[in-house]
Amino acid sequence: MGRQTSSLSFADRLKVYLRDKGARHDLIDAVFALPGQDDLLMIVRRVEALGKLLESDDGKNLFAGYRRAANILRAEEKKDGEGAFAAAHDAARSRCRKRRRSPPRSPGRARKRRSASPAKIFEGAMRALARLRAPVDDFFLKVTVNADDPELRLNRLRLLGELRDAVHTVADFSKIAG
Fold first, then answer.
1. C-beta neighbour count of 94 within 10 angstroms
2. What mean pLDDT comes out for the span 42-55?
3. Residue 84 domain boundaries
4. Do 110 and 37 fall within a single domain?
5. Are 157 and 102 in a shared domain?
6. Tens-place pLDDT, residues 19-38
7. Shared-domain flag, residues 118 and 47
């Protein structure tokens, strides 16, 4: 008798295993949605770290800020075209005229750190994302994204695009159930 082969791939088997261990299906899908997910141990670590982040208050609030940013971007990209806000924002242009406050620091610094050492990134990346919670909250409380000034509006939308991109380097947050 020949060996029976399963129709399930390693990825499918890992998804079943993670679900059996209590991992949320949406977190598994969010991690698997990233390109290049071929290291099974790293996938497991990423799903675990993402779960821990989203159980924390900072993670929950950051996720809420991400969803708000993603919704704004989705609506504005319908008007301006997909990728309209893909360029980096201009930090010098980001200052709010009335309050003279800067928006949250670009998440690009955390993105550079994450690319340095793939074996050690997950919990550090999650902590870096959690630290974005307060500046993101502050940004949405004090800044009108769709400003009357078209250049200011574009710059603010680019900043939100950077936030979305930074979050998506850890997992595809659009796959996470709210």
1. 20
2. 90
3. 57-172
4. no
5. yes
6. 999 999 999 999 999 998 88
7. no
Judged by DSSP in three states, 99 sits in coil
Residues 130 and 110 in one domain: yes
Q: What's the token pair of residue 24?
A: 């949320």
Q: What is the CA radius of gyration of the chain?
A: 19
Residues 151, 138 share a domain: yes
Based on the domain organization, do 69 and 148 belong to the same domain? yes
For range 115-128, the mean pLDDT: 64
pLDDT band at 119 (very low <50, low <70, confident <90, very high): very low
In angstroms, rounded to a whole number, what is the distance separating the alpha carbons of residues 69 and 28?
Answer: 22
User: Would you tell me how many other CB atoms lie within 10 Å of the CB of residue 83?
Assistant: 9
Give yes or no: residues 95 and 152 share one domain. yes
Q: Are 56 and 177 in contact (CB under 8 A)?
A: no
Q: Note whether 163 and 66 are within 8 A (CB).
A: yes
Q: Quick one: tokens of 4?
A: 């029976």
Q: Is the pLDDT of residue 4 over 60?
A: no
- C-beta neighbour count of 129 within 10 angstroms: 28
Is residue 4 assigned to a domain?
A: no
| CA angle 52–136–57, rounded 5-degree value | 30
Token readout for 166 is 């930074």
